[in-house]
Structure formats: C-alpha cells, structure tokens
Amino acid sequence: MAAPKIILYTNHLCPWAHRAHIALKELGLDYEEVIIDLNKPREPWYLEVNPRGLVPSISYNGTIVTESAIVTQFLADAHPSHLLPASTSPEGPIQRARIAFFVDTFTSKLVPKYMAANRSATDEERDAATEALVAAIEAEVEGQLYPAGHGAGPFFRGSEKLTLAEALTGSFLLRFLSFEKPQYGLLGPQFTASLQKRTPNFYRWASAVVQEESVNYIWNEEKVGNSSAARFKPAAK
After folding, report:
1. 128 vs 134: CA distance, rounded Å
2. Omega of the bond prior to 44 within 30 degrees of 0, cis?
3. For residue range 203-222, what is the model confidence (pLDDT) as tens digits?
4. What is the 3-state secondary structure (H, E, C) of the chain?
5. Helix, strand, coil shares of the chain as percentages rounded to 5?
6. What is the CATH number of domain 89-230?
7. Cβ(171)–Cβ(228) below 8 Å
8. What residue segments make up the domains of the chain, in order of their start?
9. CA-CA 20 to 30 A from 199: which of 51, 96, 106, 141?
10. 3-class DSSP state for residue 64?
11. Are 135 and 194 a contacting pair, CB within 8 Å?
C-alpha cells in the first residue's frame, strides 16, 4: 500500500497539537508540517482547512481531519500497531475501552486542575491548585496504571510499548514534570516530591513516557516553559 500523503497543521507550543506528533512519530509516518501562529487571527486559508481555527488538523490523502483526540485515534486506526488494538481482536474492545476511560479521566479530572495552577494569581493559590492536582492523580489515575495481573512494562497497564493512552497524555506529562521549576513557577515546588511519595505508579509511568523519542522529539522545555509563564503569569503578578 502506498504511503499516505499527510499534511499536519500544528504549533509546537500547543499540548493538544503535540498529540498528533506523538502518533505520527510512533507510527513511523512521514508528513509535511505547516506551523500555525496561534498568537494572531487565523488566516482565511486556514479557516477553510479548519473553520474553528484550532490545531492540530491533518490532511490525509486530501481529506481533512480535525480535533486532537480524533486526529490521533484516526491515525492509530488507519495504521494498526501497538498503539491501539483492532476492535475485532479478542482483547481489542476491552483494551480500547480502558484506554478511552483513562484518557477521559486524565483530560477531565487532571488537566483542569493543572490549568488552574498555571493560572493562579498567587503562590498560595498555585500551591493549593497543585495539591488538588496531586489529590486527583491519587484518587482517579494511580490505580488504573498497573492493576493486578498487568504486564511488566512501564506503560499503560504494563505495556512494553507506548499505547494510545500515552499518545494522548504525553504532551501534558512533559509539562507536569517541568513546570514546577522556579524559572516557570507554574506548579507548586512540592509537586514532584508529592508524586514520588503519594503516587509512585504515576511518577514511574510519567517518567518513562517523557523519555520516549516520539513524545519528546519536538519538545523544547525552555521555549514552552517561558512561553507558558509569559502567557499565564503577567496578569497574576
């Protein structure tokens, strides 16, 4: 089968767009990259690609697919791999359901608390929001990562390779494990120590995920961290 022609409309500072990069790299797919400037109104040509003006969008053999989770799962479905089992395989439906539930939990329970910490007006508010994030990880996510009978690998449910769960969360894990540094100040300084003490499964998992080339190959911590701090902190300080 001929390789697909893929154009990825993206921005390397956006954690949602980063999801598509992880999937494309993990699947070994070549693509053309078009950077969209998110700091100015979208140009008319891009609104024809995606009327919402968001990233990522992809053109896949001329067909447009938008929204980060949809783009990422589309790529995983179009190119069967370790990321996501086929729904017709014996364990496929239940594994897909587990991944979907995990990602929904991460996105709905953790990301809002992470964003609240980023947007906090004072150090006290930031630290309280960071504690709320740790508590949510402890209550909602810690037990899903390595349940009884799981494999020995470091990824979701003991997988030896990345799954769609990591493709859809890895960009946020990079930020979780970087943004408590004082030069960014977007998470409380106790965050990593709290993860190590209270959520060792999550810390083990996140630490393994961010080491993967497919997760970090477009990551520029200093650029993303400084950009995020400039975006969120001026109004707070």
Report:
1. 10
2. no
3. 999 999 999 999 999 999 99
4. CCCCCEEEEECCCCHHHHHHHHHHHHHCCCCEEEECCCCCCCCHHHHHHCCCCCCCEEEECCEEEECHHHHHHHHHHHCCECCECCCCCCCHHHHHHHHHHHHHHHHHHHHHHHHHHHCCCCHHHHHHHHHHHHHHHHHHHHHHHCCCCCCCCCCHHHCCCCCHHHHHHHHHHHHHCCCCCCCCCCCCCCHHHHHHHHCHHHHHHHHHHCCCHHHHCCCCHHHHHHHHHHHHCCCCC
5. 55, 10, 35
6. 1.20.1050.10
7. no
8. 4-76, 89-230
9. 96
10. strand
11. no
First to last CA, the chain: 55
What architecture (CATH level 2) is domain 4-76? 3-Layer(aba) Sandwich (3.40)
Percent of the chain clearing pLDDT 90 (strictly above): 93
Per-residue pLDDT tens digits for 1-35:
689 999 999 999 999 999 999 999 999 999 999 99
When comparing pLDDT for 40 and 233, which is higher? 40
Quote the pLDDT of residue 237: 44
Q: Which two tokens stand for residue 203?
A: 């810390």
Cβ atoms of 11 and 38 closer than 8 Å: yes
| Least confident residue range of 55-64, 77-86, 136-145, 225-234 | 225-234
Tell me how far apart the alpha carbons of residues 231 and 214 are, in angstroms, rounded to a whole number: 26
The secondary structure of residue 81, as a DSSP letter, is B
Q: Report the length, in residues, of the chain.
A: 237
